[in-house]
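User: I'll paste a sequence; please echo it back and then give the predicted structure.

Assistant: Echoing your sequence first, then the prediction.
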Amino acid sequence: MIKKISVTIALLTICVAGLFAQTEATDRMKRDVAVLSADSLLGRASGTLWELKAARYIESIFEKSGINLLYPFPGQDFSLVMDGNDTLRSQNIVGIIEGWDPKLKDQYIVVGAHYDHLGYNNMFFNGRDTVQIFRGADDNASGVAVMMEVARLAKAQSFNFRRSLLFVAFGAEERGMIGSWYFANRAFAPVNNISLMVNLDMVGRASQGSDLKLFTVLPNTELVTLLKDVSDMPAMITPQIHTTDYFPSDHRVFATLGIPVVLFTTSLHSDYHTPKDTPEKLNLRTMEDISQYAFNLVKSAANSDNMLERTVLAADSLKQGSADKIYSQNEVDKRATFQKSDERKFLQKWVHHYLRYPPAAVEEGVQGRVIAEFIVEKDGEITNVKVTKSVDELLDAEAIRVIKASPKWRAASVAGNPVRVKISIPVEFKLKR
């Protein structure tokens, strides 16, 4: 009886502590949004004094949280000559949490959000001059607030990250994603060591967690599996996952370099780019849920054994010049097919049909998604089967066994000629409850 009471008290303590943490997190994000969308910042237009003041606020939050600045004051500053010979000057604010693993700390997970907006208009209304301010509470004070909350969470557990984390507040996004372009193409030399870029843009308008949408721009089995694994974590929201793009934002700069990306958003709305985008319309509780999801995604990506594989947009001169190039399914004219269909049929009709759950794994309660990749050769044979995301040795071995036993596929082709393609698939091992 005493043991049961002790357990109950412990659970209550955990729950109460969680409630306090939620309140503190929402209070922090409410304050951040209020500052960034305040009338005194006049809509923080790109390249203005008010955008600069917003940058100084973000910088102060990083410093108060104990997060080092990769580029000290005034930040990663840049300029661009615009039409009419006007020069736009802005800055990215970059915080860094260094990974602990000597072999992986020079690889990076980037979490970004743009902090500029549209500024203000002077209007003559009802016989008097009126200032119309585009506060941009959702676009994108909400994304910056969530980004800074993820940074706070990561700093508190910095000993848990093998790779290094970069938290970037991008300037001048509204003028054509200038800040993110400068970061990725001019300023950050080890850009090829970025495993994943997470972009938080307009994440405050949601009635519940399922309103969150994640866009990966291109199909990416490893990344989608990673997102699903995070969704399966206890007490986690379940976002909608799309392997397409939604709207232009900073993630596109990284995607064009072949870096895997995820856009977090709760969607466009009728107040987008209007003065009606104000703080009281944001759902802070859902923003906290999003920050928890983003934190766990960043943690999983930072601690995986390998970097996420580059997409088809990555420049690879060695591959391009090779007569025996290995393509992806998205690069070919005709995809490799299994029984006149795609990878989904291979999973349904072959892999999951012939998969045998290892008894020892059942006894140990081991489950999860194994990601396996293989090459469909020019003659349709399956070769080079290997696991790129492991769950357990027993499950890994079973996934490899089934794939290796596959009948021949119909080979992919480019310009009518058969080519080799690499395919990744998630093999699901799930115990019934």
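The radius of gyration is 24 Å. The first strand starts at residue 68 and ends at 69.
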